[in-house]
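> example.struct
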């Protein structure tokens, strides 16, 4: 009896071929699905408008607390803390396509602000 005639060998060959065949069929569609999902995410992110406006930045005044600033501008994209012996400085940085806003806090109060937002 040859390998081709043995029913066990034939069944194993069929199942392994069937598994490979089903993987090959599913694999390209899986890749296409992932690429489509990635394209949708990139498109949705690129369509988000700039959330900061110069009018919002103008509302921020020296002496405001961090909580008040965050209620106007939202959470910052970056923060930087410097613990100096005399005072503690915290910098909020807001970045977006139309520019950036920097708010410096000393002793948890706004000490200065800078904006490069285009109006």
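> example.seq
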């Amino acid at each position: 009896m040859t390998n081709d005639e043995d029913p066990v060998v034939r069944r194993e060959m069929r199942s392994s071929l069937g598994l490979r065949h089903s993987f090959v069929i599913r694999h390209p569609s899986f890749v296409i699905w992932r690429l489509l999902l990635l394209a949708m995410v990139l498109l949705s992110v690129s369509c988000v408008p700039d959330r900061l406006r110069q009018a919002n930045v103008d509302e921020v005044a020296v002496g405001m607390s961090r909580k008040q600033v965050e209620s106007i501008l939202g959470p910052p994209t970056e923060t930087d803390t410097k613990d100096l012996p005399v005072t503690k400085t915290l910098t909020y940085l807001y970045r977006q396509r139309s520019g950036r806003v920097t708010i410096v806090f000393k002793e948890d109060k706004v000490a200065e602000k800078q904006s490069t937002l285009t109006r």
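> remarks
Residues 7-46 form the longest helix (40 residues).
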